[in-house]
Batch of 2 targets.
Target 1
Amino acid sequence: MTKTIIGKALPNIPWEDKPAGCIDVMWRYSGNPVIGWNPVPKAARVYNSAIVPFKGEFAGVFRADQKNGRATLFAGTSKDGLKIDLNLDPIEWVDEIGNPAPTSYAYDPRVVEIEGEFFVTWCDDMRGPSIGLGKTNDFKTFVRMPNPLMPYNRNGVLFPRKINGKYKLLSRPSDTGHTPFGNIYISESPDMIHWGNHKLVMTNGGQGWWQGMKVGAGPVPIETTEGWLLFYHGVSSTCNGYVYSFGAVLLDIDEPSKVLYRTRDYLLTPELPYEASGFVPNVVFPCANLYDAETGRIAIYYGAADTYTAIAFCQVDEVISYMKANSEVF
Ligand code: BMA
């Protein structure tokens, strides 16, 4: 039988079957949150973080807000994807010749393996939020590359392979503050340095009020026989502040600026205490997904309430069928 996910098997993917009686497409790990307050002395809150398969186990780049409130990136490892061993100190970025290249602040990392190298994108300070880009082979040495786009921009997410000979980057142009607007765009590059041919992918709005104010790309897109499966966050504005939920979109495999299906309703919204209460209440913010092409299992890592790291699960075929039956493309 043809497998839906085009990619590697990951037999050790963290997994729990859907609980009996659950009617939703996505369900939470019963051991959530997997990272709580103050996991290491220099990190108060670890959330909106990225994890990838690495040498038979897992490694990642984690957003850790320190006790001065500053957002920083820490590297970490995990044997099973559930218990995360965070380094004690933040990543010390270097430039291409090994000189220190520190970040002023850094948050919301994504990590993607492309042709055997791991690339990291994050929200970087370039006299205002912009997209940082760097790479590592070992999760010990992290080398900065030129920032791909001008400020102000956030939520930079690379595709895991070239498409029609070009690297592709999703992004969400923004402002210097909390950005009460936001659409997802795509850019391309022949060399990861020069980026252009910018196109609009998708906007806020539609019938789904949960994504009425802004949208931003989440984890690295998953290649499937039906298109690129991208989980993304959608934000609504309430009288008590912003609420972050997430949904999914299927993008055309050869022309990923084209949306094929998009969830009208959210897949996950803040419901449980660790999502609804914390440093910033009512936030679920996905930044990574692990997947097993053999079984179609997907594990999504999301930040909860800007305080915790949590995991949710779904099955690729179920998500895609649900999207087809409950789609709104606008
Ligand atoms: C966004 C980003 C995220 C954060 C969210 C909710 O603008 O800063 O890191 O999770 O706001 O506070």
Target 2
Amino acid sequence: MPLFARLEQRIVDGERNGLVDDLDAALREKPPLEIINETLLAGMKTVGELFGSGQMQLPFVLQSAEVMKAAVAHLEPHIEQHSEGVRQTKGRIVLATVKGDVHDIGKNLVDIILSNNGYDVVNLGIKQPITTILESADEHGADAVGMSGLLVKSTVIMKENLEEMNSRGVADRWPVLLGGAALTRGYVENDLAALYQGQVHYARDAFEGLRLMDRIMA
Ligand code: B1M
């Protein structure tokens, strides 16, 4: 099987043996972000489809996710840093997967892209209640708050989180960046924007997250 097809299949099969050798070979042909976006994410998409149609059981999804994480971790040091010379931060964001949700591959990609483009990222991890997110944003003097979630339930949690930020009177303090597979642009830009008293933005992927942060900080 050709190299990139094999790498994609490794994600689907959750196969770690030979992963590093294949990644190193891939790095000689393409930049790391291209490998992540074109090859590894295609594998995760197939995993999602197989799981959604009942053809793959959860433990195997977890195995695929672990291989995906290992692959991204191996590629990350090779991603070009876009922050010039003496590192000057473009801004700081507190990032978390919302309460009740364990999905973190997308959030961690957002962390990598923002960190490699001059932002300070405080990554709180998974299943984070809004109280913790806001305490951290306050403690770190964050310029924005980012929430990720992949479950349909998480879209409801995000709405509750924004309502909580309204009622605490901190909406004008922190623009909010939202992302994750269960969200739609319409839901964020119409429904959530109508209720949140500050700025709320939808990012389809990590690169849109970067563009939005650049706009927020401009
Ligand atoms: Co689960 N899972 N999962 N899962 N899982 C989904 C989300 C699901 C759609 C699968 C399916 O049914 N087809 C489904 C949700 C259905 C729903 O809610 N309607 C589902 C389910 C049901 C579950 C469980 C409930 C299963 C169970 O226990 N019976 C359970 C939930 C546990 C919980 O959260 N409490 C569960 C568990 C798991 C694993 C642990 C096995 C594993 C996660 C491992 C991990 O993350 N460490 C897992 C996985 C891997 C998936 C799928 C297959 C792949 C997710 C992924 O990593 N995609 C997923 C299927 C799918 O999404 N179609 C599925 C790759 C990743 C890069 O994409 O995170 O969307 P994503 O990130 C993108 C963008 O969305 C965006 O940028 C990234 C790309 O650049 N983005 C942001 C994301 N966050 C952002 C934040 C931003 C900006 C952009 O700014 C802040």
